[in-house]
Amino acid sequence: METPFPPFEPNGPDDSARGPRLREIPLRLVFPNLITILAICAGLTGIRLAFENRYELAVAMVLLAAFLDGIDGRVARLMKATSKFGAQMDSLADIVNFGVAPALVVYVFALDQARSLGWIAALIYAIAAGLRLARFNVMAERENKASWQSEYFVGVPAPAGAMLVLLPVYLGFLGLATDRTFAYLSSIYTVVIAFLLISRLPVWSGKSEGNRLRRDLVLPMMLGVVLYVALLMSYTWEVMVFTVAAYLISLPFGARKWRRKYGTLTIEEPGIGDDDIGRHI
């Protein structure tokens, strides 16, 4: 069958009917989004491994997802590849990697023995992580930011929450019996971490530009980091339990520092108000 001749166009071909022409995108704009996608894949793979009773790999994948999710924004800023699309991708990845994945892993490992109470605890944590991320996004969109936002978080940040909520799993790896009593205690602990996420507790972030390290402490700090990584590789779950304990112990000290500087125990400035809620629903 012969191909019909194209219609005659006296003024040349009409390209407007083809829609807007797709322009080429620099590869550096795509690379941070690939890191975000890999983080989502790691988080979802961690969930699958947990249901297959391969718990150590599941926890490793969740922690890897948290690591990748934590560096994608920094990589985008270093490569000058930030975009609104990337910001939306990152927000969706945060909910999966810091909320859903840790909640399901800890539920399958320990909370399921508490039956409905364990599932309720996992739900509370996942929802709290979503609320925490929504509050963070709303505060980040404000044009006029408070000076303390570069030094403190409002409540425990979601990446730290994912690390904290997995404590029952770390303890199980160290040989602690994961019976029904352990499941009930883990459920209570999970709810406590959920409330720390959505609390107004001032948590020191360490991101303030005014924080500087004395020259004589640089080499000892670098040696300490090397020692920590070496211990983490050799005694992974012991070091993770120590890290969780150290982080929880540090929270009152951050709140104490805030009180000395601002005179309150919690951050009183509203994170989200009625206008913010109405505008973002």
TrEMBL record:
Q: Which InterPro entries match?
A: CDP-alcohol_PTase-I, CDP-diaglyc--ser_O-PTrfase, CDP-OH_P_trans, CDP-OH_P_trans_C, CDP-OH_PTrfase_TM_dom, CDP_ALCOHOL_P_TRANSF_CS
- The keyword Membrane belongs to this UniProt entry's keyword annotation: yes
**An example molecular function term from Gene Ontology annotations:** CDP-diacylglycerol-serine O-phosphatidyltransferase activity
Q: What is this protein called?
A: CDP-diacylglycerol--serine O-phosphatidyltransferase
UniProt catalytic activity: a CDP-1,2-diacyl-sn-glycerol + L-serine = a 1,2-diacyl-sn-glycero-3-phospho-L-serine + CMP + H(+)
Q: Where in the cell is it found?
A: Endomembrane system
Enumerate the UniProt keywords alphabetically.
Answer: Lipid biosynthesis, Lipid metabolism, Membrane, Phospholipid biosynthesis, Phospholipid metabolism, Transferase, Transmembrane, Transmembrane helix
UniProt record, GO biological process:
phospholipid biosynthetic process
E.C. number, please?
A: 2.7.8.8
Question: From which organism does this entry originate?
Answer: Rhizobium sophorae
Q: What gene name is listed for this protein?
A: pssA
Membrane-spanning parts: 29-51, 57-79, 91-110, 116-134, 154-176, 182-205, 217-233
List, alphabetically, the GO terms of the cellular component aspect. endomembrane system; membrane
Bilayer disposition of the protein:
Multi-pass membrane protein
What family does the entry list? Belongs to the CDP-alcohol phosphatidyltransferase class-I family.
Q: Pfam families, alphabetically?
A: CDP-OH_P_tran_2, CDP-OH_P_transf
Gene3D superfamilies noted in UniProt: 1.20.120.1760
Q: Where is the CDP-alcohol phosphatidyltransferase C-terminal domain?
A: 217-252
